[in-house]
Amino acid sequence: MYVPKYNREEDWASIANFIKENGFGMLISTRDGIPEATHIPMELVEKEPGKFVIHGHISRANLQWQAFGSEQEFLAVFTAPHAYISASWYGEDKIPTWNYIAVHVYGQTRLLNKEESELLLDNLVNRYEGGLEHGVKLADIEAAELSSNIKAIAAFELAVDRVQARFKLSQNRHDRDYESVIDHLKAKGDENSLQIAAEMEKRRKSARS
Questions:
Q1: Can you tell me the distance from the alpha carbon of 100 to that of 168, in angstroms, rounded to the nearest whole number?
Q2: How far apart are CA 25 and CA 106, in angstroms?
Q3: Strand 97-107 and strand 162-168: pairing?
Q4: 5-172, which class in CATH?
Q5: What digits encode the pLDDT tens for the residues 20-64?
Q6: How far apart are CA 34 and CA 36, in angstroms?
Q7: Which spans are transmembrane here (predicted)?
């Protein structure tokens, strides 16, 4: 990913928080020289102090799993809020653009065993079912059905070996244009625009403090 210096995010706490809040991403690899990608929920896990991994799972019917445990480097992509930035919001410049946040995580994978796979699923279900009124727990699933489903998936662990993070948030604009972009995004009012505006506000305040 091309990441200009002024868009580059190097604060691991910010990057980790973004991954945790936007865990539905793309797992990308190659097979026979052809890129392939799977859209799946993934979890950032601190395996030991300062050492992070990505956990996820795919169907065994998806042949991408056959590369788990190989020497191939995988890429996990996380992205969420994005917003079109109209040039009419600037004082003089007339070139429009797009603001967004994207994180790329590179690393090798290993295939998880049955016990690790069940723990992965338990953590995933607890996270997304936990806030629901009648949330389901893994323990609610019949043992035979759960075992059958675990056999049908390939769970993996991706080592966080290398990270690229681009937080493209008009950092190259002067204050007047920057504030104008925020105001117009707020006026649009959709979820993506509001999220980008909030992130821009937080960052400019942090830079001034």
A1: 5
A2: 13
A3: antiparallel
A4: mainly beta
A5: 999 999 999 999 999 999 999 999 999 999 999 999 999 999 999
A6: 6
A7: none
